[in-house]
Design a protein that fits this description.
The complex is a heterodimer of chains A (about 150) and B (about 650). Chain A is of the alpha+beta class. Chain A contains 3 helices and 7 strands, in the order αβαββββββα. In chain B, helix 10 packs antiparallel against helix 11. The chains are: A alpha+beta (about 150), B alpha+beta (about 650). Chains A and B meet through helix 1, strand 1 and helix 3 of A and helix 13, strand 1, helix 14, strand 8 and strand 10 of B.
Chain lengths: ~150, ~650
Amino acid sequence: MKSRHKKILVILLGLAGLGIAAALILNAFQSNLVFFFSPTQVAKGEAPTDRAFRIGGLVEVGSLKREANGLTSHFVVTDTAKSMPVVYTGILPDLFKEGKGVVAEGKLGKDGLFTATQVLAKHDENYMPPEAAHALEQAAKAQTTLVK
Amino acid sequence: MIPELGHFALIVALLLALTQATLPLIGAQRGNLTLMAVARPAAQGQFVFVAIAFGCLAWSFLHNDFSVENVARNSFSQLPEIYRFTATWGSHEGSMLLWALILAFWTTAVSVFSRHLPDDMVARVIGIMGLVSTGFLAFLLTTSNPFLRLLGDAMPADGRDMNPLLQDPGMVIHPPMLYMGYVGFSVAFAFAIAALLSGRLDAAWARWSRPWTTVAWAFLSAGIALGSWWAYYELGWGGWWFWDPTENASFMPWLAGTALIHSLAVTEKRGAFKAWTVLLALTAFSLSLLGTFLVRSGVLSSVHAFATDPARGAFILGFLAVVIGGSLALFAWRAPKMLTGGRFNWFSREALLLSNNVVLLAALGTVLLGTLYPLLIDALGMGKISVGPPYFNAVFVPVIAPALFLMGIGPLARWKEASLPDMVARLKWALAISLATGLLLPLTLKGFNAWASLGFSLSVWIALTVLIGFRERLKNGGRLAALPRAFWGMQLAHFGMALGVAGITLVANYQTERDVRMNVGDHAGLAGYTFTFRGTTDHVGPNYRAARGTIEVSEGEKPGGKKLFVLHPEKRIYNASGMAMTEAAIDPNFFRDVYVALGEPLNDQATTWVVRIFHKPFINWLWIGALFLAVGGFLAASDRRYRIAVQATAPSNAAAQGA
């Protein structure tokens, strides 16, 4: 093989490698995007039932209940306009509290129960997860428009 | 009085930085030696004044001066002294002051260790660093003044305490280490800009810039590893890397820096890849700034996002635009004039290092995409999305794998032209052994697993090629101690990668965990150990109260085995903030960590708890590997040849041009 041919071969191989890598990346990217929905959006039926997504809002006061095994907890997430029931098995983060902001990732069942695989930890007590703040803001806006 | 003194020192530092940024650059352009001579004293003076400002802030923290807003917000009278000191950089303002201090420190280091450099080069490098300093000091004074006072009734009786998560020895050294790395890339950046300005991009330039870049990279490696270690034992989730945007913010400059130190090697030895090396130097520092923007502007939700103030975000974003835009424009204007030297064959050390660079940048691209895309979508008002660890794991691992394979070949290949049959002959046994290990080892553990195979093969491959490297250097006689430090440094760092890859592979594929509900006296078995819960006792710390659990660990997964050790995980409530925190207990050794954390009490008497138990095989190899990277970096940077005075045009450069 001449050196020119070798060079072309190397370049072609490189391009093929890059092409495969790009396809791999975009595919993984597409299937791993996690969308966010507020309880109001979920109530309107905007959220998918076949893939995982995130919800956020406040943990309704008085809604946290544990099953006898101690590991499964039920609570209600609200954006003050709509609320939705959530079930989670595992240890809740230190800063999970009733009346405080929360973000959970999981799937929505046909019965409207959200099965969380992850409840996101916050790092600071006074800190509101931006997604939860966003959900509350949207709900507040919707309510003021109704009043008008 | 002291805080005002600090504030005043900061203003003086800004004025000195302005001087440092203007006069030497003008002097270098006009060939005026008097103006150029301003560079060193201005830089050193700036360092002194930033250090005074930093000292004043530290003094306010140590003396509990709660009339200073920053102290009131981030400290507490009961906080132990060491944390009162580290609280100095525990807030947004203090953290930016540390940034400025470390930048001034690096500049001063350049001013001291540059005796053998031409005057105009020194003036330009220090001038560029002065521009960066000016930006950061102006940022501090206009948007993030750490010395603001709360006077009269506004002054609180006591502080609000430092975030409990940061009250930890790991956090004492993580930020300074990380910043030494982040900010250290500003030296490589300044050298690159200075070379573009002067039009002298030669091997000598690469040789000057190499040790600085390597040292910064070593600090960054250590800083990232410390951050990961902290997350592992402090957050109580047992994870060591979450692909959190703040982690990515430090990882991206590291990837660019890794590419840069390899590309600088080619530029120094062969005079090739000049434009590429310059571009990487600009990229590495731009990514450091991007990381600062991401972490400091409050666009991300994490322990680092102290406060959301739009003015700060806008300032850093503007600064980022000026630095990146300005340096790229200069590059576009000057780069075409650069001579490319050193022809090489498609199979040679140059070509292999180029491939390594391409792979590293591709990996960097995947991390950048996953980190910025959600922010972009949010900024455009197209909804809120997040990109989680599954994306990064699925993409990053296969993309980076070729770089790990090339690591084995590159150091053994010859410059200019290597022979494929010769390489095959030298490496066939290493290849066979690593493939065999990769295929067989998973079978002896838990059955075949493609990811584990890939990880084991690559780890063994890198380790074996490091050994071959040593053997070939010593083939014709010679002593280990006589080998150059640069060679030792490279090999140690590469061996560190082998250790790290082995650790990651083992812990990612073979760790086990259980969340169990435990009454006093209950047993739980995991990974050949039995855990027996002996209840909790109340414990009072300096600024917190805790429930301290006692968990006995014995041999075998059935109760009654030999007693091995006792662990005391804690659940703390901090006095000032009322914040709850999990303090995990770990029994570490060379081959595994046993990790337990208390979840929450399930009854009022606190006799029943949810307990989280982990068995983490070989996790410590990860931190040991990172230590090897850092030590390797420092060793390589201390190589003798960087300390010998070099002429402006080194002979090796002339040879490379002629070849």
